[in-house]
Amino acid sequence: MSLKFAIGDLTIHRIIEQETTFLPALDLLPALTPDLLATNRPWMREAGALDGDDVLILCFQSYIVRTPHHTILVDSCIGNDKPRPLRPKWNMKTDNTYMRGLAVAGFSVGDIDFVMCTHLHVDHVGWNTRLEDGRWVPTFPNARYVFGKAEFDYWTEQNAKTPVPPFGDSVLPVVEAQRAEIVGNDYEIGDHVRILPTPGHTPGHVGFAFGRGGDDAVFSGDLMHSPLQARYPHLSAKFDVDQAQAAATRRHFLERYCDTDTLCCTAHFPSPSTGKIRRLGDGFSCEAVAS
Fold this sequence. Notes:
seven-stranded mixed sheet; globular
């Protein structure tokens, strides 16, 4: 299994924290019917996206992109020492899988120039911080952390009503350490990195496009969780704040990159998680690219 890709003048590494069963397909995707699941069961199982009990298999990972000028980490995964009682596999984790993955890829925490979050859900911000002497400090001490303003404002408002643990332990400490950049949808880093507004999963969800003069690679975040949603873009996840908007955004994204050479780097598809978008009937397929 390749964890490194070269495209254009970019080098992309995958840092996998967990690749594991998550939720039953019929639970995560409320519009999925038993008949539609049965039709797609064979190829989903062959792709490693569905287990024998019809539970979806998801990958939880970060991407590290080296441009000619910067080293950028996209989405910081689950994290250690975080109280996540609703998710036993994530709760108070103490393993070294993520840090070992960084080291194997040839990176230290000090090498990261930017951490960019597609959105501020628990499994995309976890390694933003780590526990040091009883307090949360930025894991990547030299990085600027990029949060979309619409997303940050949404979670600030939610957190004011009822405390949101990942926001409190993995986002606010970065802001307090003055390492955060709260940015609009016109934000760019040099001539290599651009924001793609992709609302629906959360109000301020964004993707990121990388490449000089074109989109060599695009990072889709939670625009889609499973290859089944590429095949059937109307299938929104139960965690999508606006399921109709998420479906429209997903189809627009897939149309935009369909039959191009852009490498689509998904957050949660099973390994290799990356591929080229191709048309398939009324929907699409993310044709795996493993190296």
